[in-house]
Amino acid sequence: MKKIKLRPVKPLSESGFNLKISKSIVPNFFTIANMFSGYMSVIFAVFHRDLVMASWMIVLAAFLDAMDGKVARMTHSSSKFGVEYDSLADVISFGLAPSVLIYTYYFYQLKTVGIFMSFFPLLFGGIRLARFNVQLESTEKSHFIGLPSPAAANVFATYIIFMNYYFPGLILSKVLIIFTFLVSVLMVSTIHYELLPSISFRDNWQKKVTSFLYVMAIIFLILFPKTLFFPYIMLYVLSGLVRYIFAWNRSEGD
User: Which of 40, 98, 148, 253, by CA, is between 20 and 30 Å from 230?
Assistant: First the structure.
C-alpha cells in the first residue's frame, strides 16, 4: 500500500493570509456610525415625524465625527481614504440631514421657496467640505477656516430640541430663517474658528484652568443637555464672528 506523504502546513502568516486587521478600519467604524446617524435623522424626520429624535441623531453624528478623528490620530491611522470617506459621511449627517430637518420643521410651509431655503445647509455644507479636502495639507490643524459643518448642523438640531423643551409648538420662523442664512454663509466664509481645547492638567496654570472650565462645561452639558446644547453652540458660532470683528477693527485702526 502506497504511503501518502503529508506536507507540513505553513503558518497563516507564511501562507500569505494576513490576520492582522488594518488600524485604519477602527476610525472608519466611527465614520460609518456617523453616516448611519445622519441617515436615521432623515428617517425619523420624514417617516416618523419625530423631529426631536431626528435632531438628537445629528448631535450623535457630531460626537461620532469628533471621535473618528481622535481615534485616527491616536492609532496613527490617518489616511487619504479616511479623509474622503469622512467628508462623504459629513455631507449626509451635516448637509442632507439638517436640510431635511428644517424643511420638515418649518420650511415645507413656504412650498417652493421653502425647498430652496432649506437646501442651503446641504449646498453650502457640500461646498465647505469640498474646499476643506482641496486645502487639506495635514490632518493636524490649528483652527478651522469657516464654521465647521457639524457645528452648523447642530445649530438647527439643538434649536429644535431647545424650542420643543421650553416652547413646544412655537417655531419663531424669522429666527430660523436668519439662522439658516447665517450658518450657511459662515460655513464658506474665511472666518477662523478655534478647535475645542484639549484637556491637560500637566501644563502651566492657564492650561489647567482652561481644562478645568472645559470639564465643568461638559459636566453641566451632560446634566442639562436640552437646556445647554443650544446656548453652547451659539456661543461657538458667535465667537468666530466676534473675533473677526475685533481683528477687522484693529486692522482698520492701524
Answer: 40
